[in-house]
């Protein structure tokens, strides 16, 4: 089980994270426009705890805006 | 919960000026992760050439010296000879390294200078408005090849990693891509390897990244990632072309 945090302010809406998420938990919020003038990526509500903290979204984010958290059990070392 | 992924320490907490879908930010992050991993932030000097990567000093917490167009390997040679304890890397695009700086990089590699060259290959001159580069694919339309690149007048795209791998002074030459998360992970290993080679005084290390330039390709980020997979990767095969295992190679 995991959790991601997206910093919307720097997001340029390239959708790389949307395409990379195997659980389809990320979407582009067309209701919101951030300070750069783009529709930023948001995380969907995750009541079933589908996110496993695989970090694929964070790996592909060209602006390094995604933080990934994961339960301690079986967690890899940071930047390993 | 434990934080398993965040910005590397060496990366300055600011917004990149790059276009949406550009892979320069990913390359910056991988370099920062390597700097953090080997704990060399205080003795690393980055030398960007001219191109979109020129604002390296705004994004990485290291010393940076700007080089004239294409001359980054020559500047890096000077730095490494004066400061052999420091980690020196250059950050160049394909217009910088493949065109105007071809002579510098070939001779620096041939001398086996103990530096790392990061080469971002996106098929066009990105910063100046999408002109044809030496790495532009045949048939690709750019602002200076509006009917597509023709080999009879413009020659063929240059494969830099393979070319440098033939030189005796090169310790490590490889090509990686950035279009999927799996490829980014492989790219990270290549960058770590290149920095490791330099720290072990093995010689010249070279990493070529295939990256997207959606703005100058006239595509959206999704189409440009597909283009990388379908058009770039068949012409520019990924892999390690040379890897030295011992510093005394003669």
What does this structure look like?
- The complex is a heterodimer of chains A (80) and B (250).
- Chain A has 80 residues and is α+β, with helices and mostly antiparallel strands.
- Chain A is 12% helix and 20% strand.
- Chain A is globular, with a radius of gyration of 13 Å.
- By secondary structure, chain B is of the alpha/beta class.
- A 7-stranded mixed β-sheet of chain B has the order 3-2-4-5-9-8-10, with helices on both faces. A two-stranded antiparallel ribbon of chain B has the order 6-7.
- Chain B contains 10 helices and 10 strands.
- The radius of gyration of chain B is 17 Å and the shape is globular.
- Chain B has one domain: Rossmann fold, CATH 3.40.50.
- The interface between A and B is medium-sized, with 35 and 32 residues.
Any descriptors?
heterodimer, A: 80 residues, alpha+beta, Alpha-Beta Plaits, two-stranded antiparallel sheet, 4 strands, globular, B: 250 residues, alpha/beta, Rossmann fold, 7-stranded mixed beta sheet, 10 strands, 38% helix
